[in-house]
Amino acid sequence: MDTFYLYIFMLAAFTGYEVIARVPVILHTPLMSGSNFVHGVVLVGAMVALGHANTPLEQGIGFFAVLLGAANAAGGYVVTERMLAMFRTDRPKAPAMPGAQSVK
Fold first, then answer.
1. CB-based contact 88:72 (threshold 8 Å)
2. Is residue 95 helix, strand or coil?
3. Residue-wise over 25-58: b if at least 16 C-beta within 10 A, else e?
4. In contact, 46 and 66? CB cutoff 8 Å
5. CA-to-CA distance for 28 and 35, rounded, in angstroms?
6. pLDDT (tens digit, 9 = 90+) per residue, 2-22?
7. What is the pLDDT of residues 24-62, one digit of tens each?
8. Residues 34, 14, 27, 79: what is their CA dihedral angle, to the nearest 10 degrees?
9. Share of the chain above pLDDT 90, in %
């Protein structure tokens, strides 16, 4: 039964790599905001796995999975917010550097 879970993990890793590798660069920004949902699902799955852990090794791996899942979800939202801020039109203009020459 343990090899079954290993096969599932390997299949998920290969499929994830193949899907992300085929995404054009121009679509990575909109895809990032949509993938934040997936990060939340991963976090919930890690918490469920941690809840079913019996041995200290399983609990340690589960805790590490929850920690990485939470960091991934929070980081995804931070990056998305920064990307969206780049497209705002109401943000103030950066002041000119002191001593800079204007181009005419």
1. no
2. coil
3. eeeeeeeeeeebeebbebbeebeeebeeeeeeee
4. yes
5. 10
6. 788 888 889 988 888 887 777
7. 766 666 666 667 777 788 888 889 989 998 999 989 999
8. 50
9. 13
